[in-house]
Structure formats: C-alpha cells, structure tokens
Amino acid sequence: MADSEGSFSTSPVLEKLDSNDYSSVGRGYGTYGIVGAAAAAILIPILLSTIFMGKKKVKQRGVPVEVGGEAGYAVHNARHAELVEVPWKGATTMAALFEQSCKKHLPERFLGTRRLISKEFVTASDGRKFEKLHLGDYEWQTYGQVFDRACNFASGLIMLGHKEGTRAGIFADTRAEWLIAFQGCFRQNITVVTIYASLGVDALVYSLNETQVSTLIYGETTNDLGVSGMSNWKVSSFSEVEKLGENSPLPPSLPTKNGIAFVMYTSGSTGQPKGVMITHGNIVATAAAVMTVIPKLGTNDVFLAYLPLAHVFELAAESVMLSVGCAIGYGSALTLTDTSNKIKKGTKGDASVLNPTLMTAVPAILDRVRDGVLKKVEEKGGLAKKLFNIGYKRRLAAIEGSWFGAWGLERMLWDVIAFKQIRALLGVRMRFVLCGGAPLSGDSQRFTNICMGAIIGQGYGLTETCAGAAFTEWDDPSVGRVGPPLPCSCIKLVSWEEGGYTVADKPMPRGEVVVGGVSVTAGYFNHQEKTKEVYKVDERGMRWFYTGDIGQFHPDGCLEIIDRKKDIVKLQHGEYISLGKVEAALTSSDYVDNIMVHADPLP
C-alpha cells in the first residue's frame, strides 16, 4: 500500500524499522521431511501433469467506467456495479460496526495476549545486553468482554474529565488495550489522534500541539511519561480508567458516518508530519470492501497482529477481522518466531503458539523468511536440496498455469517431502497473507505461495484513501501487480504529459493514479491549501485523491505501479529516500565529477 509521498505504503508504515528487527525470522528452518518414497513422489507429479494439462482462462477483474472530474481512464471492480459502503445494513460507523459485531459474536474469542512468565537479560560476546522473554500461552477475552471494557473505558474517560469535542491521542505499541481504547473513544464520539513512534519526539510534540490533544493514552508506565512532576497533568492507569467507568457508566454519545473517527499522522519526505482526517464512513467502507476479497473469512480464522496499529494498514486489517468475528492474537516483530531476537531459547514464538490462519506482512519479513530458508537449503545440499528444487519448480509451474494437477495429491506430497517444516515457521494453518508497506518482489511472493502454502493479497492504498485502493484477488496468480480496484473505490489514470505517460499509450493506458470513492478521506488536519492541492471533488460529488504514483492498467483491469512523479523512492522497509538530496550530497564530494543516482526498491 502507499501513502501520499511514496509508492506502496500505508502512511509512514515501517519508515524507521530497524533492519535487524526481522533478522532471525527465517533461521528456524531445520531438516526436511525426506521420505524413502522420494522417487515415486517425483514420478507421480510428472504423470499427473501429463493427465491434467490445461490452460487457465483470463478473468476480468476490473472494468472501464465513465466517471466525472478530470479526463482519464477509469476502472472499477468487475464484481460490484456500485461502490461498497458498509458490510451490512446499519453499520455506518465504526462504533455501530463494533457494537453489532460484538453482540453477534458475544461468546467467541476476540483479543488474545501471551502471558509473560519471565524476562531476563543475556550478555553477548561483545558485552552488549539483550532482553529475552519467556512467554506462555495466549489468554483470551471474548467479544462480549471486550465490548464491556470499551464501554467502561469510554465512561471512565469522561468521568476523568475528558471534554466533549476534544481529541484523545494514542501513543502505544500494538496490543489489546490499543484497540479497546480506540473503540472506547468512539462510544463517546471522541476523535482519536494516532502517532507512530518512529516519527520522533519533535514530530510527536508537533502532532499533539496541532490537534490540541487533551488526553494521551500511553503504552508504558507512569514514570516513563515524564509528567509525574507536572501539576497540570492527571495520570491514571488504564485499569483505573476502566474501573472508574464501570462504577459510573454513562450512556453512549455515538458518532455519525461523516464524523472524523481519527487523525492519523503520516510523514512526508520533508517538513512536519501531516494529519489525515479519516471519517467513520471511510474506515467502514474499506473494511466492507476487503471482506469481499479474502475467501471464507469468518470465526474460524485466527489473525496474528504485530504491525503498528498507528498505521492504516494494520488498523484497517484489524477492523476487517473484528467485523467477521475473527480471533486476533497480539505479538511483536521481535517475538514472532521461535528464533526471534527477544524469544528466550526453548520458548515458542508467537506464530508457533497462536497457529494463525491470517496475518499482515511487509516485504522485509517475507524476504527474510525466504533468504533464511534458502540459505539452509544450500547448506544441507545433497538429496534434500534436489527434492526442494524439484518440488519448488513443480509447484511454480502449477501456480503459473502451465498444468492443472498441482493443488491436490501432488501438493500434499511435496508438503510432506520438502515444505512441511518451512510452513511451521509462521504456523501450519497460514492460508492468507495481507502484504503492504513496500513493493513485494515476485520471488518472495512465489516463495510464500509455494513453501508456506499461503495466498498473498498484495495491497495498494494510502493513508489518504484509508488503505482502500487496490487489492489482488485470491485466485490471481500474477506477480508485480496490485490487483483491481477494491469495491469501495474507483481508480482513474490521468495523463502526465511531462513525464511521458498518457492514457493513450499502447499496449496499456498509463498515467497518474487517482483514487476516488467512499474510502477517500476528508483531507489534512489544519492544512487546507495542501488538501486543495491533492483532493478534488467532481461534478458528480465523488471525492478524488491524486497519489503522485504512476500506474498502468492491464487488460484484465489490474493495476501495476510503474513510477512516481516525484524523485522520491521507498525502500523495502518503507523508508523514503530523496534521490535529489543523495545526488546533491555526493556531487559535493571532491572525488565526484558527475553522478546519476538510482534506487531499486527491490533486492
């Protein structure tokens, strides 16, 4: 997914992720399940391929549509004649969607958190100390319990003195209390301001001051706040606020569809961060649209949550999950697998314990899993390496449509022979991965499809479109594309003559990607001029956002991002790089006469 300053992001998603965060994700892959019937397993697929030869039909996923506004080439989702706005009748706000889903799934598991058994510090050979955690099983709260906690928290905020019409900020790691506080605020029509830690202290102070936040929901202890000596601040624990509300419950003051649900701060390449005003209608529409894309989504699913909730990618994903009654288990990037950096030796990682069916991921995670496994394959060599390579090629041929019989008997055979222990890295039940934050390489996508047995849903969206722009469909085997428009949006390409991209180009129309529909947000907080620059409303009343990205539409209606109007590139971790600044710095060197800078976002 992408934000307004770079391709494939969800606000500043993972802009400052430490490259070591995921360094151990792929290390846990051990010996293969090599069986004595290896020769037979190789011959059977060859026989099957001969019997089931076939060619897949091209499916029309997006169709051209006439729209208003600036001239261009517009496409909408082929399966939906009208834009999707709500998941079901009456769920027009996040508050309504949350309440209705909680009542529908009252006794079902909702939010899960691992029990902390102990923590210790170990000293490395270089003298550095590292924290290691011994974590137990997940402890669950039901939909009914979470709803009660959200109501109590909402009443507690008001009793604590939070004034109607003022904003509350959330500055905390991804956890159950984050979502409870978020939903609790909506029960009293409180707008939430979300801030991501990587923006830095200056950006945090700027965001809080600009939005005049009067209540800050913080994720650490009171001492860490640094406000214990400030007489004008009242500090209470999360549980104290809940208890206050439980003892003095207040009737809800519910928001409207067009009310601002949250202001999400996203950094650009320069200057101060911008606060994107996202309405209840925006986030509900995105959730409703994604629900139509992921197959068989429901109460049997378990979602592994660990990416920052301060970004629209994770927030939109968890909104989808709560809508369908899915169980959400919280983890972290540093405890994700059995060999993650913060996991104590002998302790299982989050994925092993939770055994999820769904998760979000950024390409950096999937790339490290692939690289770690391939390194182990190379180290083992011999028959194990040969079987892995044969199985990989057979499954790859099946996915790309050269033959038909890959997803039955042969799939099970290769899973046992070559891929069983690889699948265990992220849980053997993993079936669908929602990927965003940066462009995903074709190699990593195929590796996840084949070795993890999971479908990749690669998304393209922006904070300004509440993540709702394009999303690859589950049965699309292609790589390098971001799918057709989501059912909540319409995507238009507008010619950029200066850059040489026009909608008349052959063989595919090209131009700046402009997103319109019910997921397009209300604009930037307190920045009307910037809002007018990139947001437009056409004569039919549809709101459009000009992304600055350059795309092209394939004949089946799927979008591919091919360039960017600005000279800014986004690397795999979501980090922005200004080529102009790099070039200027290098040119100033006495050792450089002339230079051309190119940044490849893929490895």
UniProtKB/TrEMBL annotation:
One of its GO terms (cellular component) is membrane. It comes from the Eukaryota. This is LONG CHAIN ACYL-COA SYNTHETASE 8-LIKE. The keyword Transcription regulation does not apply. One of its GO terms (molecular function) is long-chain fatty acid-CoA ligase activity. InterPro entries: AMP-binding_CS, AMP-dep_synth/lig_dom, ANL_N_sf. PANTHER family: LONG CHAIN ACYL-COA SYNTHETASE 8, LONG-CHAIN-FATTY-ACID--COA LIGASE. The chain crosses the membrane at residues 29-52. Residues 132-525 form the AMP-dependent synthetase/ligase domain. Keywords: Membrane, Transmembrane, Transmembrane helix. SUPFAM superfamilies: Acetyl-CoA synthetase-like. The keyword rRNA processing does not apply.
